[in-house]
Amino acid sequence: MPEERDIVKEQPAAEESAAGEPVEEALAEDAAVEAPAEEPDWKDLALRKAAELENVRKQNAQRVQKASRDGMRRVAAELLPALDDFERALAHAEAEEGDEEHHLTAGIRLVQQKMIDALRRAGIEAYSPKGEPFDPHLHEAVAQQPADGAEPGTIVEVYSAGYRYGDDVLRPAKVVVAG
Fold first, then answer.
1. ∠ CA(14), CA(19), CA(24), 5° rounding?
2. Does this model's pTM top 0.90?
3. What is the CA radius of gyration of the chain?
4. Whole-number Cα distances in Å, 1 to 5, 7, 10, 136
5. Which contacts qualify for 85-88: CB closer than 8 Å, 24 or more apart?
6. Domain 124-179: which CATH class?
7. Residues 4-21: pLDDT tens digits?
8. Residue 130 region, left (φ>0) first, then alpha (ψ -120 to 50), else beta?
9. Cα angle vertex 18, ends 12, 24, to 5°?
């Protein structure tokens, strides 16, 4: 008969589930799934979602403003050359007729003024910087000439007005700068 110390006690093998996992681990996982999860903080969740919604609204408002500004830039880019043509046509017609109040030039001036007023209502403003210091962000120098009584770098003549939409320069004014 073997002595007790020679006998190796065998431990019973752990039962296995159908998936091949030990039964104890499978039961532990089921208990974790069935245990009620911690209740979410509804107030915090609501505040986060409200903040997220507000951010989306602000982003959409910014996109709408940008789209509006881009549209105004395109419209102005198309209309400003026509406005310049009106100015040149009027200058030419008035120089030849000798009478500034001729009925044709008066009609052209009326149409020109209506276009300027429509642009102004849309937020597009003309600016003529005569006498101001030259700023390359606002002005395009087409010539430089010596001028009596004017400091160098001062605008002495404006060939065509510049246009702004709010703080954005749509077209810089074409100017002659004192040298």
1. 35
2. no
3. 40
4. 12, 10, 18, 111
5. 86/111, 86/112, 86/115, 87/112, 87/160
6. mainly beta
7. 555 555 545 545 545 555
8. beta
9. 50
pLDDT > 90: percent of the chain = 44
Closest CA to 155 of 170, 140, 168, 165: 140
How far is Cα 142 from Cα 107, in angstroms, rounded to an integer?
Answer: 31
Buried b (16+ CB within 10 A) or exposed e, 7-31: eeeeeeeeeeeeeeeeeeebeeeee
- 135 band by pLDDT with thresholds 50, 70 and 90: very high
CA distances from 107 to 37, 128, 129 (A): 80, 24, 28
CA distance 111 to 79: 13
What number is the average pLDDT over the span 33-43? 74
